[in-house]
């Protein structure tokens, strides 16, 4: 396994908050970061002077970017395959296109998990309103229909409670391929982030519990309040997927806990919002761990140093920054986005969970 030492240049496709926090971690270890993004106004461009501005269809610019970096990663699994193929010709790019191919498609990722003997909600592939209707009959209502590609933060998905809604739901999805799943009456939503190096060494963060508001992550509670048996299942699921996909970098797996069983919901081969707590609550943040994994460095300690809660600051919630600065045990992170639009992730705060601090 090749080691890329401090002083090397990391390239990141994408310039949002995940790229920004990765670049900050890289800077701490003496690496330079070169960002490939559309606009210099993006959060990651504010903290590193090296950037190439272009879109993912501009292969000349992608080539320029790739020839000026030593290793490449991405903050978004939906980077087009052609863009990844272009940069890969000049520098190693992690995650590999084989991982992206699966992680870009909800049907492929759930089928992959099933083939490994891992549990998922019951699901069917559908390509028309007629197929959707027969899937609803097979799965039993209520169900949730999702586009197979490009869904995030609840976008591209609809809960179906009555069979009469079939036609309207199919039209609303605006797609020619969808996945329809049984709606799981889960007790908890949890996630695990696992790092893996090219030589196969893996290290996982503890399972955490995620609470959503309007289908967007609102709070992550660390560690998840789960039994030892559920904890083991969750770690087994994340590590099996990471190993079998041969991920180099990070794999975040979102799961449902229902009746003591862990079901896989979704995975992302990149830093994940539910791992932001690790900047302040672990010895090695998920961003530093990503850098360590793709540069062939020793993987760092991924234990939680103390119980904590990460709260996302969505839209105008970021206006409460003063309160968080005054709160004992709170670590505030703002992403430098100019406009606080509804649903936009503006920052987060990680609060050390001493009794009484998060409650009320
Ligand atoms: P996803 O984009 O697939 O992560 O879905 C967003 C959110 O919708 C999840 O975090 C769950 O709260 C909910 N959800 C998605 N799929 C299911 C399911 N099969 N059963 C119950 N809730 C679901």
CATH topology of the largest domain: D-amino Acid Aminotransferase, Chain A, domain 1
Largest β sheet strand count, sense and barrel closure: 9 strands, antiparallel
Overall, the morphology is globular
SS-based class: alpha+beta
Helix content: 25-40%
Give the tally of β-strands: 17
Give the second-level CATH assignment, the architecture of the largest domain: 2-Layer Sandwich
Task: Give Rg in angstroms.
Answer: 20 Å
CA(first)-CA(last) distance: 50 Å
SSE order, as H and E? EHEEHEHHHEHEEHEEEEEHEEHHEHEE
Bound molecules: adenosine monophosphate
Detailed description of the structure:
Strand 1, helix 1 and strand 2 (32-37) form a beta-alpha-beta unit. It is globular and about 60 Å long. The strands form 3 sheets. Strands 9, 10, 11, 12, 13, 14, 15, 16 and 17 form a 9-stranded antiparallel β-sheet that branches. Helices cover 28% and strands 28% of the residues. The termini are far apart. It contains 11 helices and 17 strands. The protein has 3 domains: 9-94, Rossmann fold; 122-182, ATP-grasp fold, A domain (Dna Ligase, domain 1, 2-Layer Sandwich); 188-352, 2-Layer Sandwich (D-amino Acid Aminotransferase, Chain A, domain 1). It binds adenosine monophosphate.
């Amino acid at each position: 396994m090749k080691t890329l030492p401090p002083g090397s240049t990391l390239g990141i496709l994408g310039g949002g908050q995940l790229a920004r926090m990765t670049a900050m971690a890289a800077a701490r270890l003496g690496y330079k970061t070169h960002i490939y993004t559309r606009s210099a106004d993006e959060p990651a461009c504010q903290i590193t002077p090296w950037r190439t501005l272009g879109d993912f269809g501009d292969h000349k610019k992608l080539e320029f970017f790739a020839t000026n970096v030593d290793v490449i990663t991405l903050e978004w699994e939906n980077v087009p395959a052609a863009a990844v193929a272009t940069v890969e010709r000049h520098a190693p790019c992690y995650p590999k296109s084989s991982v992206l191919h699966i992680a870009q498609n909800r049907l492929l990722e759930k089928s992959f998990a099933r083939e490994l003997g891992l549990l998922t909600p019951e699901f069917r592939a559908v390509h028309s309103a007629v197929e959707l209707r027969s899937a609803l009959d097979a799965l039993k209502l209520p169900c949730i229909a999702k586009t197979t590609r490009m869904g995030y933060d609840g976008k591209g998905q609809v809960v179906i409670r009555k069979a009469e809604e079939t036609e309207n739901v199919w039209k609303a999805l605006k797609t020619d391929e969808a996945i329809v799943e049984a709606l799981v009456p889960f007790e908890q939503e949890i996630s695990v982030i696992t790092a893996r190096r090219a030589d196969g060494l893996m290290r996982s963060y503890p399972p955490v519990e995620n609470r959503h508001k309007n289908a967007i992550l609102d709070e992550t509670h660390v560690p998840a309040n789960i039994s030892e048996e559920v904890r083991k299942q969750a770690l087994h699921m994340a590590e099996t997927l990471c190993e079998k996909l041969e991920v180099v970098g990070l794999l975040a797996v979102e799961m449902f806990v229902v009746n003591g069983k862990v079901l896989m919901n979704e995975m992302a081969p990149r830093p994940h919002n539910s791992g932001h707590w690790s900047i302040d609550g672990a010895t090695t943040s998920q961003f530093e761990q990503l850098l360590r994994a793709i540069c062939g460095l020793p993987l760092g300690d991924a234990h939680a140093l103390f119980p904590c809660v990460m709260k996302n600051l969505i839209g105008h919630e970021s206006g409460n920054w003063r309160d968080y600065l005054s709160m004992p045990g709170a670590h505030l992170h703002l992403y430098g986005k100019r406009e606080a639009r509804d649903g936009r992730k503006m920052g987060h705060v990680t609060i050390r969970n001493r009794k009484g601090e998060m409650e009320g």
